[in-house]
Design brief:
Blueprint: H1 2-30, H2 34-59, H3 63-88
Length: 93
């Protein structure tokens, strides 16, 4: 019973994360300002990272955890670069 509950919980979390990614994609496409689009991109990469982590837990494969780490690092750097570009108009001084 316990193992079945965990399997269904992971499946439900993956479905909900997919819905959250759809909402973030909608905000990224239809955001009225650039700041809204960047916020949608942040939410999208965080949800993608969490979705990969749930796949890793479900399949017990470590490659998903490594891919989630790469997405987290690249997403953070891109968020900082976009924010700096919006503030100053240039990324590299």
């Amino acid at each position: 019973m316990n193992e079945l509950f965990i399997i269904w919980s992971i499946l439900a979390s993956q479905v909900l994360l997919g819905l959250a990614m759809g909402c973030a994609l909608f905000r990224m496409a239809r955001g009225p300002r650039a700041q809204d689009r960047i916020l949608g991109l942040d939410a999208l990469y965080i949800n993608a990272m969490l979705l990969l982590l749930t796949f890793g837990v479900r399949t017990a494969n470590s490659i998903y955890f490594e891919a989630a780490l790469i997405i987290a690092l690249l997403g953070f750097v891109s968020s900082i670069a976009f924010a700096k570009f919006l503030m100053r108009g240039e990324v590299i001084e």
